[in-house]
Amino acid sequence: MGYTVGRLAGKFGLARSTLLYYERIGLLAPSERTAAGYRLYSAEDAARLSRICRFRDAGVPLREIADILVGSQSDLSVILETRLRALDQELERIRFQQEFIARLLRNREILEDASERDEETWQKAIRASGLTDESIRRWHEEFASADPEGHRAFLRALGYPVDENDLIQTLGKAPHHLRRINIMSERFMEIFMETLSPLTLQGPSGREHTLRALRMIPELPQRPRIADIGCGTGLAALILAQETDGVIEALDSHKPFLERLESAAAAKGLTERIKIIHGDMAALPFAPESLDVIWAEGSAFIIGFDRALEEWRPLLKDGGCLCISELAWLTDNPSREAAEYWQGVYPEMRTINALKQAIAERGYTVIGSFTLAESAWRDYYAPFPKRLAEQRLKYAGDEEALAVLDNFQAELDAFEKFREFYGYEFLVARKAD
């Protein structure tokens, strides 16, 4: 089905008369007409109009745009148009941020001391600014993506403690519900962790992947000191204790996971080799240059990949190694749907090359890397359908609990639809001199 003049003009924020003018000067003509003589524009016409608007916004005169459009689509022109489109999108994001901030600055209620503002006042102030739920969500996502530390500082200024900030960013909650999250986050996390707790895996993983990364480390001292950060139930910690002669210091913030690890270590006779630490990834209890290896399977995202690289490096001894896995794009050109989904869930995700560059820029030398096999994801997700069904039955009618379960289901659905575009990359790097 094609576009009418009005629909196509509305799609690009143009006046109907503008399209008629473009037709008159030979810049854009409708592909067909209805039996009654009305103009109909095709998807190809819409794509052409998108290019026209992009060139026009860049300051190219209409007569020159016509010449560009009739020219051949060489590799160079495609590259330049792609770059122009990216710049246009960046300018749009900047304009959106400017408008959003201006609205906040015009509303004095929003700028008052957060401690003096209750939920009702906050929501009233937001509505008075003319801001929609979607615009607020988008603004926070873009702010957090462009300047994570600045966004954290902004949230702290509103009176939200660090752990609540992490909850908002990690679980992808819409920040316009900040006050609601501040009240319900303990329960949200309770349901979230309750759902995960009985499962064997807390993320894509597997013995073969842990061993493969371990074997990439060039050399270990006789009794290496290894910190497993965000260890979960300790599958990696147990393997590391079995495969090395070191002491494994396994840290996690969720006590039930640590209790399971403690039981498993006792059953395998590894109690003396695994030191269990109930702690915070953002405030590690290790002295500078005290660790031979830092191990972090699928956990660095909680505080941010770049932040983890920066804060953990000083803890490594000279020549110490970081073994870390992180979600990554497997292509520079994921589908639009995949990009939109992950922009809402984890906007910090980047390509494998970008991860390696970030590692190198922060004082490490990449030794090697590999992408986790699809089987690692299948093993992780296998028990979820049954577990989610159990939880839905238990929490039927409980909107807050069901929202947590919906997040899990959305992740399962995304994997089935988009798995060719993303994966977990396991990277091994040595602290550079």
Automatic annotation (TrEMBL):
Residues 1-71 form the HTH merR-type domain. InterPro entries: DNA-bd_dom_put_sf, MerR-type_HTH_dom, MerR_fam, Methyltransf_25, SAM-dependent_MTases_sf. It holds the Pfam family MerR_1. One of its GO terms (molecular function) is DNA binding. Keywords: DNA-binding, Methyltransferase, Transferase. GO terms for biological process: methylation. This is DNA-binding transcriptional MerR regulator/SAM-dependent methyltransferase. It comes from Desulfobaculum xiamenense. The lineage of its organism: Bacteria, Pseudomonadati, Thermodesulfobacteriota, Desulfovibrionia, Desulfovibrionales.
